[in-house]
Amino acid sequence: MPDTILVANAGSSSIKFQVFDIVGETSGLDLNLKGQVEGIGTRPRLIARDAEGGRIADETFSVGDLPDARAALGQLGHWLRARLEGGFPAAVGHRVVHGGPAYDTHVAVDDDVLTKLEALVPLAPLHQPNNLLPIRAIRAMQPEVLQVACFDTAFHRGHPEVADRYAIPERLYRDGIRRYGFHGLSYEYITRTLATLAPEIADDRIVVAHLGSGASMCAIRGGRSIDSTMGFTALDGLPMGTRPGQLDAGVILHLLTNNGMTADAVQHMLYHDCGLKGLSGISNDVRDLLASEDPRAKLALDYFVYRAGLALGSLAASLEGLDVVVFTAGIGENSSAIRAAICRRARWLGIDLDEVANAKGARLISAGTSRVRVMVIPTDEERMIAHHTLEILKRRRRH
Ligand code: AMP
Is residue 231 part of a domain? Predict the structure, then answer.
């Protein structure tokens, strides 16, 4: 069996995982399998597929058998060991939502790093604890195995100060209240892919639109993030499946002081009941909204497209121009209708869509006459994590 790298993306109700084989002289990465334990706490189910998409696991469990993420991890470890014939991965890469102000790169985890990452829990209370759970579990079981924390924030840490700040008192900035930006692993993957696919535009002014159930946009130049629509948390910027995007802070104050809502209730609403779901009252899924005749579904999609257009204009301003737009993630990769609607609103920026190429889902969807090149590139955050993990593993092995 070749050496493998395990990638873990642990959320509140699911643990997604992928195993990559380390192959060849140049240490490439071949996908071996991918899957998830979903429905943790409600209807636990372990599903996995091999590299060709063939089903290799589909087991459901009672909540009594797998009551929480810890139990789900134990079950997953058991299944992976059997699948990998007892061989433990050479290294494990983890998606960690927050690297705080300090981490502008991905790091091997030791006790000191783990302590620093624990201290960031208040900055991402819903995500960080879940992300750290498998790191701690594997350290307890196999302390010698290299584990790498890959941060959603790292790619954005080089923002100019004006993009990193809120206009709030200085001491709050020092306390870590900054515009971190997220989806960094996706933006990094797209940036690297562009450098291979179209090296001639690598230094152009690029906006990547990561439009999935979480959505954000990032302005990129010279391979670096210049600004992003997300800020202190992953609530800001574009409307999302269930999150509102940009919202006047006064609304939160009003809900807390005049509306009798507790902070917990407001938090729950902001993460679970807003966005496309809140506006439409129907669904958080663009496919359902596109298929619906209900005017509220149309309003939700119109709002999404309108705000995406505003964000595109705003990030073009941060770049002082625009040369390339890349669509990615679930909506960006799959919905020609949403891409077309956003591009129509952005004609003034020099975007001229090739409707046929867009409908076909081609990689290049702008017309020959378009001043701005528009592309669709599937993202692969897990491969990015595997890549960073492998780089750190190779460095270790050299020493
Ligand atoms: P992600 O978070 O990147 O996996 O994206 C998930 C979201 O992508 C779903 O909630 C859908 O709204 C959207 N999506 C996936 N496939 C399609 C499709 N064919 N057309 C429109 N939206 C899609």
Answer: yes
